[in-house]
What does this fold into?
Amino acid sequence: MRSGVVAKKIGMTRVFSESGEHVPVTVLQLLQCQVIAHRTKDKNGYVALQLGSGPRSTNNMNKADRGYFGKANVEPRRKLAEFRVTEDALIPVGAEITADHFVEGQFVDVCGISIGKGFAGGMKRWNFGGLRASHGVSISHRSIGSTGGRQDPGKTFKNKKMPGHMGVDRITTLNLKVVKTDVERGLILVEGAVPGAKGGWITVRDAVKKKAHKDTPKPGKFRQAKSDSKPAEAQAPEAAAAPTAKEGA
It folds into this structure.
């Protein structure tokens, strides 16, 4: 089981297929989606990766958060999320997951927070039919009507569908198809609608109700942290000193 990613919803557009048909897609962007920490069985009781995405200013951070990111030797991230993985799918801490972590044609599950609608009535919230629109109803055409049941049971049952707060729910949309990926700009184009408003944070993972795509990279596609490239840079002065020694000989 591979790790997912944390992306930002940019909006919707369309792309044209080879046959000329237009496909509506949602654009998701990876803003330096980086591995922050590991969760292990010995220490935490389960195996998972903690990912962070999006830049975060240190001005409004407390010492605990600064110390947490400093211990991992990564820059502070705005959005954090955990993904359960198998032990063979662990990615090094500090590595940045790229857009080609997903391949074109595979199916993914997308999770986000739905748009808030405020206080909504029964017709909008639960698709009730409302009362009669003609004679006999006075200024209550959109009301839900009776909610109880006579003397027996003499009460309104719990979970009765009634007016109330609508939206701001965690919604998972299953089996959306990846249409295209752009590694340079960190974009993932997913066919169809994705829950949440523009600018909201979205988690994307491999579809759990579909077979894994044969071309998906394991444990994933990622760039190593910048600190991993320092030893290679340190070898450059030694390589430059070798020719001077031969000239002196």
Summary: The first helix runs from residue 41 to 44. The domain at 5-116+168-248 is CATH 2.40.30.10 (Elongation Factor Tu (Ef-tu); domain 3). Residues 227-249 have pLDDT under 50 and may be disordered. The helical segments are 41-44, 63-72, 122-126, 230-248.
